[in-house]
Request: fold
Amino acid sequence: FLGLSLINGVPIGVKLSNGILKHLLGQEKDLDWTDLEHFDEKMFHTFQGWMDNTSKRGFQMHQTYGLHFVIYDDVSKSEVLLCEHGDQIELTNQNKERYVRLYTKHRLTLNVISQLQSLQKGFWSLFPRSIVHKSLSADHLRQALAGSDDIDIEEWQKHVDYDDCSANDNVIQWFWTYVKSLDKEGLKHLLLFWSGTCSLPLYGFSKSKYSTHKHEQWSIDISKQNQHDPTSLPEASTCDYSLHIPNYSSYDILKSKFDVILQFGYFGYTRS
Reply:
């Protein structure tokens, strides 16, 4: 699934942790406590505070936290020793680096190792390790899979085709005026309604020569048939990125209909 997402240039819209990403890239030996940032932000900041404390005297960790080399594992619902006799080893300023290393290894690797190995095997069947290990970083892979959160409206508008209408038609002008009035969340909802994903395509709004998506061309058409009710809601065909807008008679009507869509219908009110 992750490999197909990259091949088709369609982000999954999820920011994966470095624990997963570095396994996919064969870089799991490079994991350290900073990789917790995208996995457990609270523990990341806790460890950051520990590591930033470089005073010679340090501080009495055991007296402050009462911790040993033991953690509660959410998967097995039991306490797990981070090392042999871990329940007898108190956490101190002198052994904090070892604790952090063992904690990180367990949270990001050991308790889900079989699942990670399955993901890795499937990913490498599409992208050989010899290629991805050298050419990709965890940050690059995360960006490719998650997609961008920044929607450039002018870039979007530039790459839209108009079927049996033109950019000068009132409805089209009103539509882009409405789009430019949306906040970041509203733009994500519109993107999801129009394309089926709330993340930008891997190569942006333009169709890339590297993409295998056969119909990756954004388009808008205006329903002008007499039998079509001009007060009905817009529709979208997510499989070919096409948006179908009724021939509304005013901006206010268009705005009210899209407001309904982006509040209630962006997850499932589509033709596809």
